[in-house]
Design goal:
The chain is of the alpha/beta class and about 400 residues long. Helix content is about 45%, strand content about 10%. The chain contains 16 helices and 10 strands. The strands form 2 sheets. The chain has a 7-stranded mixed sheet, sandwiched between helices.
Length: about 400
């Protein structure tokens, strides 16, 4: 129940990777013998497939990275320094992944200005607010495709149209969206897009940054001439093969998987609402929510306590982004949508995958309510609320 943190690598993906460890294992920068040229040929094919599956116009718009975080950092820092002569203003939202927010904080220390847009109570960015924030110094807009904590799907196409009208580069972090909704860079109209293989049943340690031809960008990693001189490091050929296979499977099976996950998501949401009082669904319902995301705040108790007891029953869940799980602070996303600290602290995220079964949904619905009840029975605050309700009655 924590598939937004990571997903299991599919056997078909493992099988696709294995030849690149033992058979086609050459260095793609070694062009004067067959082993190196076999690697070059393989990379060309993989790049073409990835481009096709995200709607990129040309394979040379696909740049392999070491992660989604690297892709996000490269997008922000690379554009900031490439377009510094034009301006120093960046627009993002308050609910972005820390890869975006911390990169923005870094750039602020180096003379750039960042506008962090508010969101509504369901985590939605208002395109009109984006347009109102644009100045003659704005060089980049970065808004995530779908939120990793509360599942809100953002109006990226509308925002990208605004960016294009004002001649501003548009980037979207689509790391959590792939495999859970259609993602086509041409349809969205974005200039750059980040993704990461391990979010859709691929291996960890490999991602992609799509960069539309014509967009200037400074290098994040300097060294050799890999990735057409833009991203130095000997290519992770096996990782690239794993990403390509996982992406291909995700796109081919997207409609079936969305339907299956949506049905289970809605049943889980309805079951929690029915069985647990004083709970709040965070994020929107219906089509504006990622098909695999469930996020609830349970009043009068701590989310971390729920997670520990769930784990004792064999259920893996989270209180937000895995990249921030070491923090004792409440989720920045939940605070941004207006939750007070005490309610944000009582939040749990359950995220499904295409492999999630009906039996697993049933088990969560059997296990979670008694855990919440037990914790509330130990909560002085909950006891006070019940006492007040008895007096009213």
């Amino acid at each position: 129940m924590d598939n937004n943190a990571t997903t299991v690598v599919k056997q078909e993906v493992v099988d696709a990777m294995l030849p690149y460890f033992t058979e086609i294992w050459g260095n793609g920068s070694s062009k004067f013998y067959d082993l190196g040229n076999e690697a070059i040929t393989a990379m060309t094919r993989l790049r073409e497939s990835v481009a096709k599956n995200i709607g990129a116009a040309r394979p040379n718009e696909i740049y392999f990275t070491g992660s989604g975080c690297e892709a996000d950092n490269w997008a922000l820092k690379g554009i900031a320094y490439a377009y510094a002569s034009k301006g120093n203003h960046i627009i993002t939202s308050k609910i972005e992944h820390h890869a975006i927010l911390n990169a923005c904080a870094f750039l602020e220390k180096h003379g750039f200005e960042v506008t962090y847009l508010d969101v509504d109570c369901e985590g939605r960015v208002d395109p009109a607010a984006v347009e109102a924030a644009i100045t003659d110094k704005t060089i980049l807009i970065s808004i995530m495709t779908a939120n990793n904590e509360i599942g809100t799907i953002e109006p990226i196409k509308e925002i990208a149209e605004i960016a294009k009208k004002h001649k501003v580069i548009m980037h979207t972090d689509a790391v959590q969206a792939i495999g859970h909704m259609p993602v086509d860079v041409g349809e969205l109209g974005v200039d750059m897009l980040s993704l990461s293989a391990h979010k859709f049943h691929g291996p960890k340690g490999v991602g992609v940054l799509y960069i539309r031809n014509g967009v200037r960008i400074e290098n994040l990693i300097h060294g050799g001439g890999q990735e057409r001189g833009k991203r130095a490091a000997t290519e992770n050929l096996a990782g690239m093969a794993g990403l390509e296979k996982a992406l291909d499977l995700a796109v081919k099976n997207l409609d079936v998987n969305i339907a299956s996950m949506t049905e289970k998501r809605d049943r889980l949401i309805a079951g929690i609402k029915e069985r647990i009082p004083y709970c709040r669904l965070n994020g929107p319902e219906g089509e504006e929510r990622m098909c695999n995301n469930v996020n609830f705040s349970f009043k009068y108790i701590e989310g971390e306590s729920i997670l520990m007891l769930l784990n004792m029953h064999g259920i893996a869940a989270s209180s937000g982004s895995a990249c921030a799980s070491g923090s004792l602070d409440p989720s920045h996303v939940l605070l941004a949508i207006g939750l007070p600290h005490e309610i944000a602290h009582g939040s749990v995220r359950l995220s499904l995958s295409e492999d999630t079964t009906d039996e697993e949904i049933d088990y969560v619905l059997e296990t979670l309510p008694p855990i919440v009840k037990r914790l509330r029975e130990m909560s002085p605050l909950y006891e006070e609320i019940l006492h007040k309700e008895q007096i009213k009655a």
